[in-house]
Amino acid sequence: SQKIEQNSEALNIQEGKTATLTCNYTNYSPAYLQWYRQDPGRGPVFLLLIRENEKEKRKERLKVTFDTTLKQSLFHITASQPADSATYLCAPKGRGSYIPTFGRGTSLIVHP
Amino acid sequence: DGGITQSPKYLFRKEGQNVTLSCEQNLNHDAMYWYRQDPGQGLRLIYYSQIVNDFQKGDIAEGYSVSREKKESFPLTVTSAQKNPTAFYLCASSVDRVGEKLFFGSGTQLSVL
After folding, report:
1. CA of A100, closest CA in chain B: separation in Å?
2. What is the CA angle B66-B70-B76, rounded to 5?
3. Among A72, A79, A100, B61, which residue has the fewest nearby CB atoms (within 10 Å)?
């Protein structure tokens, strides 16, 4: 069955450093992959979408990579700030489905 | 301002009771979705609708029902057949293509009395 793996342990980093979050998937080949941010008690907010023919996508301090050989996406936040503290969800979309499947998310905590 | 409004923010259900969660959007989006989120879990799809008067079951549709009579509205009913309804329910919509760049509401926390 299709499986999405995001690190269940929180990632703690110091302000100003680069945060790198990992999303691994197995048993399918996503046509694209999305990243969302979720704050406690709130709905997720869309951040970036990367397609299978794209290696990298950037938006301000955010960067996403997509390695279809490794079946992995990396999400980077450069010059991290305490306001970046949240849970980040990975959502690949398989070819046979209209709908993306969401991972459990990784909690990021940026310390001042 | 455009957005998705979910109501109520908190809802309590008694045993054997049906409850309806409201979801309204003024973004003119065609596609709408309902997800369920349990603590420490990913979002699981309950139902989705690509156009008015059409909807499809998601991965965990049993015990739930929906309607899509208007483009702006996609209410979710949690029926008494749903034995474990306590969860955070999220409604979303999208405009570009179904499944891309979902715009979420702020959620409804449903608890059982």
Report:
1. 6
2. 20
3. A79
